[in-house]
Specification:
Number of domains: 2
Order of helices and strands: EEEHHHHHH
Helix content: 40-55%
Shape: globular
Distance between the termini: 46 Å
Strand content: 5-15%
Length: 143
């Protein structure tokens, strides 16, 4: 119960599912997510699967899950920029919105993380925000 994680087996398929609160720490539960377990190890593959899914809830869920790992934001933004043409535009925008890089100070405050702890300074956060906005713009114009 420390992590608010529960695992289920789907009796019809035998698939393992994880129910959890990614922000379920420090007495803040946030949104509850349910997803198949385990996720692919490659972040690039996770993004490809979730941002091309027919259900936008997959993009929302992965965005929320990644939002609590700000130390990974630079890598995530780089992957998104390099592969933006491969993703559904609406899902890409939804993911970026839920990732928290558009308002990083607010997002970090919500998860009670000091930017320095995550290896992020004000300049890096500003660059991530600008890059995320450019990705959305480039994808909108199909650049």
């Amino acid at each position: 119960m420390d992590t608010f994680e529960v695992f289920y087996h789907d009796p019809t398929t035998g698939e393992l599912w994880k129910s959890f609160f990614p922000k379920g720490f420090k007495e803040h539960k946030g949104t509850k997510l349910l997803r198949p377990e385990p996720l692919p190890k490659s972040l690039e593959l996770q993004l490809e699967i979730c941002l091309n899914s027919p259900d936008d809830a997959d993009a929302i869920g992965l965005g929320i899950e990644c939002s609590v790992k700000p130390e990974n934001w630079p890598d995530i933004i780089d992957i998104l920029d390099n592969n933006r043409k491969k993703y559904l535009r609406s899902h890409l925008n939804t993911f970026i919105k839920h990732l928290g890089v558009l308002n990083p100070e607010e997002s970090l405050k919500e998860i009670q993380v000091d930017p320095a702890e995550a290896g992020l300074d004000k300049e890096t956060l500003s660059l991530l925000t600008k890059k995320a906005k450019r990705i959305k713009l480039k994808r909108f114009f199909r650049i």
